[in-house]
Amino acid sequence: MALPNAAADEFGRGRDAPTVYPDNAREHASAVSWGAIVAGAAAAAALSLIMLMLGIGLGLSSVSPWAHHGVSAATVGVSAILWITFSQIVASGMGGYLAGRLRTRWLAVHTDEVYFRDTAHGFLAWAVASLATAALLTSVIGSIVSGGIQAGASVAGGVATTATAAAAAGGSEMAKSGKPMGYFVDSLFRKDVNAPAAAGAPAGSGATSGHAAEPAIAGSEVARIFMNAIRSGPLPADDLRYVGQVVAQRTGLAQEAAEKRVSDTYARVQAKLRDAEAAAKDAAEKGRKASAYATLWLFISLLIGAFCASLAATYGGRRRDA
User: Fold this and answer.
1) DSSP code string of 55-72
2) Where in the chain does DSSP place strands (E)?
3) CA-to-CA distance for 35 and 281, rounded, in angstroms?
4) Chain segment 113-122, per-residue pLDDT in tens
């Protein structure tokens, strides 16, 4: 037969040509064994899912909401990176090996061509498995990542969240809800029994004052004054004088002492707001870095998985042809 001789010439002199089967020796026979690729991809996707669930279980069992219990956040992050990479190596390697081992045997094909096809089969198995896993877990992974970032941001910037919500709320709501602004406003009207009473304004005279007749109304008004000027800078002189009068009538302090209390409290509110904004920015920066690092390491682990799948497919192909 001419075909075995041609195969012998192709593989080199002095080597026995393998038995040639008609289905694999045809010129237009497909070089892709999709059945082997799908089988390897299914195995890789299933094994990747199993190892992912195992990693999540181990990770949750190692953390604790209590202080000084469980592993640190840095340890969890490094462990997650190592586990994802290990999972990619194992799952992709298994999928590539199956894709190479289960493929149809090619005959009368040059050794370099066989090596290339095996490599391509492993890579295609990895690609199909990755796409299937991404399609099935996109929403789950997205919720996990976004939930983790939001949780970290809320922990790091808990003060920022509270202060920002207080800044956005109305003055009366802050005064009633006990939020930071309401606390500072309430501290303005604390009576000091050792403070001298203002001349002509004895303690209790606020009961006849129209703007200080109701404590809740006065507190809401002062909160609105603070919120109107807190982002623009110092408290205007007329607002300082007016709030000082309200505080003097409610507490019995002298006008000068009341204005000093107002200035000090307003400065504390501004410092609280600046700290809250700094904490919020810091939390956002930490979330950004965490997302960037997670994306980069996921990219690296996927590349490692592609390499392992291709390499394992060549090994499986050699075992198949042995």
Assistant:
1) HHHHHHHH--SSTT-S--
2) none
3) 52
4) 888 888 999 9
